[in-house]
Amino acid sequence: MADKRPAKVRRGRPRQAEVARLAGVSQTTVSLVLGGNKQGIVLHPDTRARVLEAARELGYVPDPAARRLAAARNNLLGVFSFTATFPTAVEHSYYPFLVGVEQEAAVRGYDLVLFTGSSSGGAQAGAPGALERVRLADGCLFLGRHIPADELRRLVGHGYPAVHIGRRDELEGLAWVGADYVDASAEVVRHLAGLGHRRIVLVREDDDAPASTDRERGFREALRRGGLAGADPVVRAADPASEITPAWLRERHAEGVTAFVAEETDTGAAWRALLAAVEGAGLDVPADVSLALLGSPPADLAGRPRPTGFDIPRAELGAAAVRALTALLTEGEAESPLVACAFRPGSTTGPAPAR
């Protein structure tokens, strides 16, 4: 005789989790269907039909109190950094971003929540579900040179309002605000060309961060439009300190290179290596070679001669990111603007030496 086990008795109103089990879908899908799919996420008609049929079979009706709670906002904006340690020091390159974020949030009546998931000892941002904590806030700003694309894509795909500070075209659906590194880098090359430089080399780190690729794109476009000759105008260094040496620099200088350009990164590795190589080679700046930096120098090098290059409008980018995020919250959509960078003449460039 078959063993008969007592059936489970459900008490109270059916829950979305039960609808999800019966329909064979995730609870998120149930929430989207029963909530009217205000996020506009594409759902297969059969999936929607299964959810509605399961809800009818179980007698599911929305909890009015829960719906009011879910729709409520607490006027909190999150800020999540993908750097190893959340930047708080004034000299950190992210500090001006945070100043702009704070000022604009205050003007718009929002408080900030700082998430430190990438800090030393904290949960890794790329771990499954690591970004779900940001749902404590109405929406969240993200910043960092490298991002956990899958986790961020999942968060955005579920309709959570998010804006990245820095261009992120590769992540569909993610709003962003960014600096116009392409035009700014091209302007630096045009400045060097105007001083008579015909052989110019860009030193950059060996990765595919959008900020780096944008700088290289502007650099190459300006070379092409200026008709500037030279093989291998871009050097990608995995370890700039060991690759950009005095011997390497003297060799390139002997080949006719009269101007060297480096990109700004969190570490400033390319710029540091270039400065050390020039000094080790015994060359004078700008009499023998000209140097330019696509961005601003690290804070600990502030006492050195001010490099030719451009300044990134970090505070304005932070404020623009808050405006984009509040637009997502209030209007459901936001533009992804590029903010112009200001050219910085500096003192590290001069006329190309006669050959």
Automatic annotation (TrEMBL):
Iron-sulfur recorded as keyword: no
Keywords per UniProt: DNA-binding, Repressor, Transcription, Transcription regulation
Pfam families the record matches: LacI (PF00356), Peripla_BP_3 (PF13377)
HTH lacI-type domain boundaries: 14-71
GO MF term list: DNA-binding transcription factor activity; transcription cis-regulatory region binding
Transmembrane segments: none
Name the record gives this protein: LacI family transcriptional regulator
